[in-house]
From TrEMBL:
It comes from Hymenobacter negativus. This is Nuclear transport factor 2 family protein. Residues 1-21 form the signal peptide. Keywords: Signal. It holds the Pfam family DUF4440.
């Protein structure tokens, strides 16, 4: 009887071993992939930081109150997009404003305001960084990256974009006359989204207790 019981236990162990080994192997592969992604992300952030530092050294922000005003307008514009504040955006854009978006579409000031009015565009993250600012008498140029997450025509869009804004100064006021946007990479915004997802998951767990 003892021998039979021993054989029975050995059989159970042999049956369980492949599944256990497979789970262990899967966890090991997942851990290696996660470590590889983390290393790649760290390397990419380092590379981009070094590139931004070189760019900043080669093309520093113009000095003076006019450059500071352009940066203030950029921040006001970013915040207005989060609030869907059409009134603020109306006063920032020239009537002849024209934009080329990351998909190559050309839009006007009227298009921007119509999209806000029709609730076609929303965003909850719009963070400009890595500025290049130039002032040429009554003309100005601003280039910066933006971490963006939002919705356009019902489609979720997120990532890092590089945008270039052209300004003119009229009657003592700076106005945006043109905008060109290029998609750069989804990496940084993806990291932000992961943090938000973890927070939402923790909130659900707390609420369910």
């Amino acid at each position: 009887m003892k021998k039979v019981f021993t054989l029975f236990l050995l059989g159970l162990l042999m049956a369980a071993s492949p599944a256990w080994a497979q789970r262990k192997s899967t966890k090991s592969r997942s851990a290696k992939l996660a470590a590889s992604r983390a290393t790649q992300e760290k390397s990419e952030r380092t590379r981009r930081a070094e590139a931004a530092a070189k760019l900043s050294a080669a093309m520093p922000i113009s000095d003076g109150p006019e450059a500071a005003e352009l940066m203030r307008i950029e921040e006001a514009w970013a915040q207005a997009t989060i609030r869907n504040d059409a009134e603020t955006i109306t006063h920032l854009l020239a009537d002849e404003y024209v934009a080329v978006n990351s998909q190559g579409m050309v839009t006007s000031k009227a298009d921007v305001l119509a999209a806000i009015a029709n609730d076609e565009v929303k965003c909850d993250i719009n963070k400009p960084f890595e500025y290049i600012v130039r002032v040429y008498n009554n003309s100005g140029l601003v280039v910066h990256n933006t971490s963006f997450r939002g919705r356009l025509n019902g489609n979720i869009t997120s990532g890092e974009y590089r945008t270039m804004h052209m300004y003119v100064k009229r009657n003592g006021k700076w106005l945006v006359v043109a905008n060109q946007t290029t998609f750069v990479v989804p990496e940084r915004i993806t990291l932000v989204s992961k943090d938000d997802n973890r927070k939402r998951k923790r909130n659900k767990e707390v609420a369910g207790q």
